[in-house]
Amino acid sequence: MQTVLTKSEYASIIWSLRYALDCTRSDIAYVVGLLCRLTSRPSLKHWNAIKRVMRYLKKTQKLGLHYQKFPVVLEGYIDVGWNSLLDYSKATSGYIFNIVGGDVVWKSKKQTI
């Protein structure tokens, strides 16, 4: 059975994934960023990708971050991907900072220039 989503249904699901990403799930940043770019033309292929992300979230929902007391170390990482899967004209960049191994702030963004 094939499910066809309207643009508004697709956008609603994507924004729900964005909420999870922004609040607690930095591990889905890249794929949600890709799916966000496709809200104007969702297809069955994109719906299948959403279902895969949802299965991943369900399977990993009991996992959590465990902080150590000492030593408190702040680490930061950045990356730029010059070869995007969907658009070779713009880079995707991101950063993540963590304290004692737990993510505290992150962002992934397609560059505008």
Outline the structure in words.
The chain starts with 6 loop residues before the first helix and ends with a strand. Helix content is 36%, strand content 22%. The protein is flat, with a radius of gyration of 16 Å. The protein is of the alpha+beta class. It has 3 helices and 3 strands. β2 (92-99) and β3 (102-110) form a beta hairpin. It has 2 domains: 1-62, no CATH class; 65-113. A 3-stranded antiparallel sheet has the order 1-2-3, with helices on one face.
SSE topology sketch:
Elements: H1 7-23, H2 29-36, H3 44-59, E1 74-81, E2 92-99, E3 102-110
Antiparallel strand pairs: 1-2, 2-3
How many E strands?
3
Which spans have pLDDT < 50 for at least 5 consecutive residues?
Answer: none
In total, the number of domains comes to 2
The major β-sheet equals: 3 strands, antiparallel
Strand order across the largest sheet? 1-2-3
Element pattern in H and E: HHHEEE
Structural class category: alpha+beta
Relative strand content: 15-25%
Any idea what the radius of gyration is?
16 Å
If helices are DSSP runs of H or I spanning 4 or more residues, what is the number of helices?
A: 3
Rounded average pLDDT: 82
- Shape from CA axes? flat
Give the termini distance in whole angstroms. Answer: 41 Å
Residues in helices, as a percent range: 25-40%
Q: Which key terms come to mind for this protein?
A:
single chain, 113 residues, alpha+beta, 2 domains, three-stranded antiparallel sheet, 3 helices, 36% helix, flat, Pentatricopeptide repeat-containing protein
